[in-house]
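Work Package 3 (structural annotation) set out to generate three-dimensional models for the target panel prioritized at the project kickoff. During this period the team completed the workflow that converts sequence records into discrete structure tokens, so that structures can be stored uniformly alongside our sequence database. As a representative example, we reproduce one entry of 309 residues exactly as it appears in the project archive.
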Amino acid sequence: MVRTVLGDVPPAELGIVDAHDHLFLASALLPGQELDDMEAAQAEALAFHAQGGGTLVQWTPYGLGRRAELLAEVSRVTGVNIVAATGLHQARHYGPGFDLADPGSTGLAPAALFTAELTEGLRASAGNEVLPARAGLIKVAGGFHRLDPHARTVMAAAAEAHHATGAPIGVHLEHGSAAAEVLALLYDDLAVPAERVVLGHLNRLPDLRLHREAAERGAYLCFDGPSEANHATDWRLLDALAALVDAGHADQLLIGGDTTTAGARAATGGGPGIPYLLHTLRPRLRRELGEENADRLYTVNPARAFAWA
């Protein structure tokens, strides 16, 4: 099954999947660009649904304005399945006063917090009220070409929560880097099966050899863009995907939008937004990769990647 904010659904019912995006997000690193408007989130999800979208995986983790109390309502109003994330991002996204030993003053260490959000319910944005909606993904983050002590601690906690639940782990790779280091820690040291790991932002570092090496380890590779923030490497997206398909890794590829600022929304900002994945990028991928391979990226692969073990 795949755990959505409205309950568990069979993987075959996900439909077309945006494998990495954000309806709500607030980071200390993006002042003034918060995704915090309910109507704007609904408008973006409705636009995605109108293009045939069925499921959106929101990678916003605990403590970054994910508006957990609103996600179920957005899903009901728009008809889009939403998979929510627990987990933690890099420490710098949280600003001063962040305490890794007790994030959000919940009284729970990270592993216990992640497990509770996966099995009991997400914590609300204010007051840590336990909500009926549960997380379906554990989000963690590496650094630029390295894993600092914060990243290692969070990934160890994510591995513990994975072993307790079977939930998949999504990894923010800073500028697409440190994939080998992440897999060495999660897979080799912490015994998380590589096929339970989704590596994000690989399009930001269009190193085809690095991509192939990560795929050979067995992880899922998520290419999340295009967006204004990633335009410097977006032009390599089709080349990178075609190279991985040619190397025999078509079954490990995912596609997402990674809308991180209000201005990047299509419905209420300057775009390209979430619908771009379907009305523009999907036809191009079908022409470049063939219809069967393109459909794997949008439906078949995410149905496996986000199913609980």
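The mean pLDDT is 94.
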